[in-house]
Amino acid sequence: MSIKDESRLRMVSYLEKIGYIKNESVKNAFLKVDRSMFVHEASKDEAYKDTPLSIGWGQTISCLLYTSPSPRDRTRDRMPPSA
Questions:
Q1: What are the DSSP E strand ranges found in the chain?
Q2: What's the rounded Cα separation, in Å, for the pair 32 and 81?
Q3: CA–CA gap between residue 50 and residue 80 (Å, rounded)
Q4: Does residue 25 sit within a domain?
Q5: Rounded-to-integer distance, Cα 34 and Cα 61, Å
Q6: I need a surface site. Which of 7, 19, 52, 60 has the fewest CB within 10 A?
Q7: Rounded to whole angstroms, how far apart are CA atoms 13 and 55?
Q8: Total structural domains in the chain?
Q9: Helix count (H) and strand count (E) of the chain?
């Protein structure tokens, strides 16, 4: 397992622990998407730190602790699996 994979797993475990990740589809998305692909080369080692990182054009990947699921995600948590 690479350091990047370990960092991703650690981040997902942390987000589950604090209640940010509440369903498997969100968890799987966090496990599947490599955040380092969205940041500048110089910041790739910091992709899984809990800090905003530039993705260019004046935009950032949000720090993890201060982002919250959208109302749509919260609604999905209460929907039956067949919906």
A1: 53-56, 59-61
A2: 21
A3: 32
A4: yes
A5: 12
A6: 19
A7: 24
A8: 1
A9: 3, 2
Contact yes or no for 44/30 (Cβ under 8 A): no
Residue 83 in domain? no
Phi, psi dihedrals of residue 11, rounded to the nearest 5°: -65, -45
Which residue range is the domain that position 51 belongs to? 3-78
Residue 12: count other Cβ atoms within 10 Å of its Cβ.
19
Torsion sign (Cα): 43, 10, 63, 60: positive
Quick count: other Cβ atoms within 10 Å of Cβ 33? 11
Write the pLDDT tens digit of every residue in 17-76. 988 899 999 999 989 988 888 888 888 888 888 788 888 888 888 765 555 555 555 545
Catalytic residue check, 43: no
pTM: 0.64
